[in-house]
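We emphasize that the prediction below concerns an isolated chain of 266 residues; any contacts that depend on oligomerization or on bound cofactors are therefore not represented. The input was used exactly as deposited, without trimming of termini.
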Amino acid sequence: MKGSFYLLIFSVVMSSCKKNEDFAACQLEKFIQENPINRSFHYDNITLKNGRIEKLLSFDINVNKDTLNKAIIFFEYNSKGQVKAVRDEANPTRIKRFDASFDNSGNATKIIQTTNGNIEDEIAVQYNAKNLPTEITSRYLLGINRNIEYDNKGNPQLIFRSDLGSTPSITEHTFDEMHNFFSGIPEIKFYWIVRPLNTFVPFGDHNIVSSKVYLFDKTEFKESVSQRTKRELVYNQNGFPETIKIIREDLSSTISNLSTFSYQCR
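Result of the prediction step, given as a token string:
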């Protein structure tokens, strides 16, 4: 009887370990987004070192012309292995840095943005009990302003956006049950806080499969039907997306974004 009990415990532990290994079995190395409507491309190339991000090269190409919006990002870590800063060296004469201060739980609660050492912005971040960011506020209104609400599985179901100069919006997402393509590179969460993607989110374990956008109209938020989308995903054998099609539901299923992903898998 005792032997059966220990065998059961061993099986549970091994199952748990296997689940964790599978979950981080693939680390994203390349991420290409194509917009077939305007013939533009966005490239993200990730350099990994010792199992974590060392460098991110990000750029756009429009109609086969020269690169735009180039970013060359280096990740810096503290002795605990946390991302303590990222720096952008795309323009060698204007080095941008984002340096973090941490709370007792290891969450980056304040991030200072500088260019050549001159302070440009201060970003405050609040977290829930699960250490997921719920509020991201740009002190000088130069950067981002987000509020995030999560579903009971920890997925970012509602994202409120109120950036300077843009119409306030709420985006409502639904999710699959497979691995978020960012799962193997959790360090990217820091970079998303300072330079967020609107289309993809690294928080939560799963991938977005549909989205609705609500825009503020004088006194209330109303759905912008033209921005309603669904997604078709194809996965690799480890359960990570290989391709994601974002389809606009108002344009006879026109594909507005086609993303492909390359991983380093164990």
